[in-house]
Amino acid sequence: MIEIDEITKLYEGTAAVDHVSMTVETGTITVIVGTSGSGKTTLLRMINRLIEPSSGEVRINGEATSALAKHELRRRIGYVIQGDGLFPHYTIAGNIGAVPKLLGWTKDKTRARVDELLDLFSMEPAQFRDRYPAELSGGQQQRVGVARALASRPDLLLMDEPFGALDPIIRARAQADLRHIQRQLGSTIVLVTHDMEEAIHLGDRVAVMDGGKLLQHGTPAEIIAAPATDFVAQMVGGVDRPLRLLSLIPVSEALEDGTADGEPIAPDTSLRDALSLCLWRGVEALPVADGDTPLGRVTLATIRARAAELA
Amino acid sequence: MAGLSPPGVLFAVLGLAAIFAPFMTLAANRIVAGEGRALWTLAAPQITGPGIALMLLGLALGLPAARPFLRIAGAALGLAGLVWLLVLGASSLLAEAGDYARVSPAAGFWFLLVVFALMMADALSALSPGPAARAGLLVLVIALVGALLWSGALSNLSIAQEFASRKNAFYTASLRHLGLAFGSLLAAAVIGLPLGVLSHRNAGLRRALLPVLSFLQTIPSLAMFGIMIPVLSWLSGVIPGARAIGIAGIGFAPAFLALTLYSLLPVVANVLAGLRTAPAATLEAARGMGMTWRQRLTRVELPLGLPVVLSGLRIVLVQNIGLAVIAGLIGGGGYGTFVFQGLNQTAGDLILLGALPTVALALVSAIAMDILVELTTPRTEREE
């Protein structure tokens, strides 16, 4: 558990981060979202003390971060930045093994971990281990950046706009990969973005910041359904709000018995996508099936009812 | 014109013109001005003929653009013809002249030498040889020139006679010149590397230091050597025992100090530029993963910046080999001794005895340092 307690950063008397407190549960993704200048990156960088707080403290599993030497603290926290920041003169194995090397792991242990991570990110170890970052595509470099941050099994992973440099298609893939790997490893992640869509898609919890203050901290559904301020309401996109809410609910939660015509959809399809398909196909209901097993159907009326009940 | 190498055409035109320039001079003694002799007047046609033919063949072989190996062979043939004419021409000219007569290469020889050397360099660069091949070529050239000098084939030339009468002085001067150039490089590196690293970390130091070093660099070299004389004589007077370790107004110490001061700016500036080559995101990631500043320096900034740092040392070395000549003026020794003696005696070949080794040393050092820079450039892609 990460506890951020009344943390403040002053630059020449102006607060870049103003008395922010929040708790990040172990094994969850918390996304801090805000416009540029909102203080979100400053807040993130105070967690691994790349920026020293003016007041307040951060505790990781009860232990204050100020109790450790800075470099010791950072070796326990994974850190991923936009544009990956890989070492151009290290091979992929050298990059991923950088923190284990700092921690004094044996060569064999490091090598095994590197191969394990490359496998996890669907990159064939034999093919990628000895390459250099310049030989990889942007998406591959980004994956190596995340693998490097995970190498020493850190207590916490900090990510600063990690997908900002990727094109939309690769970004969607990278987000899905991150979600998948986080579920698999049970990592605790704090991620900073300016993209509310990304925040809603990735976050178990979303924290909205503006002007150095934490405006609202809650689940994506809470943030969309009950924005605490006009600014949050604006961030979650005004008229798109019902659609964003529907995007959080899988059709498996709105199933009813019966059948419908057409190509069946998977149970983890979101209600927003189902709505879109209904409109596109000009039908009132869609069949839902898990592979070859029919599960039932979802109707336009149910979707409409769910949207109304959320609003 | 298609298929002709443009530089090859230029070399052929220049080379043909140079063949008509005086190739050697014959003087009655070492002081008086000599009389220029054209190629075909050096010796009997059966001696000059083959040499001239070799050079013409060489110039012709330098023409085809698509055949770098042919052009290399052409340059080699041309150089061989040049040496042939120089060696045989010298003995033939001396045979018909008096006891004190001197022969020297003249404008035509030097011009042709430059033409064939450039032709060789141009053809080699078309092959873009790797560092190992370049090092091999450098050793080969040094060995060939060394063998030519060692064989005594050139001993009839005036410059060789100047050398023969000052063998010991020449060796002493060589050691002194190397000591000045490499010693000041070492001193500048020992002082400049830490200064560069500290200025990289500390903007205040950087802002204070760079203008001072730039100012030192703008002092004309003659003035710099001049300034050292009173400064060091004063020091040798105030500090007890300073004179005993060689600190005096004239001699090695002021020359060494002046060269070191000159070297500091290029060293510090290149260390700073080198340390800045690491991408900002890479450094941020290094900091974020818990590298201490020393680890960032030794694992990221220095390896990535090393080629730039070494380029700075290369500039300093070549600069100091040239500047060390001026040390001769203030009794610092080195090849400058011969240059200034030669100027005083109007003995051109004595000047050359100082100037030619200086040029050769600078060339060899520049090539060797370039090879070193390439070898230290970090790999960022796999070799296929």
TrEMBL record, chain A:
Q: Which InterPro entries does this UniProt record tie to the protein?
A: AAA+_ATPase, ABC_transporter-like_ATP-bd, ABC_transporter-like_CS, CBS_dom_sf, P-loop_NTPase
The Swiss-Prot or TrEMBL record annotates one GO molecular function as: ATP binding
PROSITE patterns from the UniProt entry? ABC_TRANSPORTER_1, ABC_TRANSPORTER_2
Q: Which UniProt keywords apply?
A: ATP-binding, Nucleotide-binding, Transport
Q: ABC transporter domain spans which residues?
A: 2-236
The similarity comment for this entry is: Belongs to the ABC transporter superfamily.
What name has this protein been given in UniProt?
Amino acid ABC transporter ATP-binding protein
From TrEMBL, chain B:
Predominant location of this chain?
Answer: membrane
**One Pfam match:** BPD_transp_1
- SUPFAM superfamilies, per database record: MetI-like (SSF161098)
Q: Which UniProt keywords apply?
A: Membrane, Transmembrane, Transmembrane helix, Transport
Q: What residue stretches are annotated with the ABC transmembrane type-1 domain?
A: 174-369
Membrane topology reported for the UniProt record:
Multi-pass membrane protein
Q: Which residues cross the membrane?
A: 43-63, 75-95, 107-125, 137-159, 179-198, 210-232, 244-265, 350-373
Query: Which cellular compartments is it found in?
Result: Cell membrane
Family annotation (PANTHER family): GLYCINE BETAINE UPTAKE SYSTEM PERMEASE PROTEIN YEHY (PTHR30177:SF30), GLYCINE BETAINE/L-PROLINE TRANSPORT SYSTEM PERMEASE PROTEIN PROW (PTHR30177)
Which family does the similarity line name?
Belongs to the binding-protein-dependent transport system permease family.
Query: What protein name applies here?
Result: ABC transporter permease
Origin species? Thioclava sediminum
